[in-house]
Amino acid sequence: MNNFDVVNLTDDVIEELEKLKNFIEFSVKYLKLSNTVFNIIFVSEEEIQKLNREYRNIDRVTDVISFALEDDKSFINTDFRVLGDIYICLSKAHLQSIEYNHSFFREICFLSIHGLLHLLGYDHMKIEDEKIMFKLQEEILDEYGIKR
């Protein structure tokens, strides 16, 4: 059984949270994950900049940051996988949905699946890896019916 939480730490209401949870449930099944635990946390620009500065030494606002706990091999081996946390900047998601000319719902789904794939070890530092990761993101969004 998979267990994830979607938390909004901002003062803004996110009407699409239930729809996002349904998309995440679909994504977890699509990726054939089992016994995983992770969180998706919506935060302010100030909070994501602070996280970016403290953990990546980059002092600027970003759209999504993933903290993959499986990167640390010293974790206790259990019957379930504690994947980590995905932080999404709510205001940046709103701005990017306008910039990319698609719905806010698509943007938060995109950022969520992007973060989840990072938790699973996918990366886009090399062009070959980027192609694999971005293809899988689009595949999941398309399969769920979320188009640009």
Can you characterise this structure?
- Strand 1, helix 1 and strand 2 (36-43) form a beta-alpha-beta unit.
- 47% of the residues lie in helices and 19% in strands.
- Helix 3 (90-99) packs across helix 4 and helix 4 packs across helix 5 (127-144).
- The mean pLDDT is 93.
- The protein has helices at residues 17-30, 45-56, 90-99, 104-119, 127-144, and strands at 3-8, 36-43, 64-68, 81-89.
Features:
four-stranded mixed sheet; alpha/beta; 148 residues; 5 helices; 47% helix; globular
Task: Please state the structural category.
Answer: alpha/beta
Number of strands: 4
Main sheet: strand order = 1-2-4-3
Envelope shape: globular
Uncertain stretches of 5 or more adjacent residues: none
Biggest sheet descriptor: 4 strands, mixed
* Proportion of residues in β-strands: 15-25%
Oligomer: single chain
Q: What distance lies between the first and last C-alpha atoms, to the nearest angstrom?
A: 31 Å
Helices and strands, in N-to-C order?
A: EHEHEEHHH
Tell me roughly what share of residues is in helical segments: 40-55%
What's this entry about, in short?
With 148 residues, the chain is an alpha/beta fold. The chain is 47% helix and 19% strand.
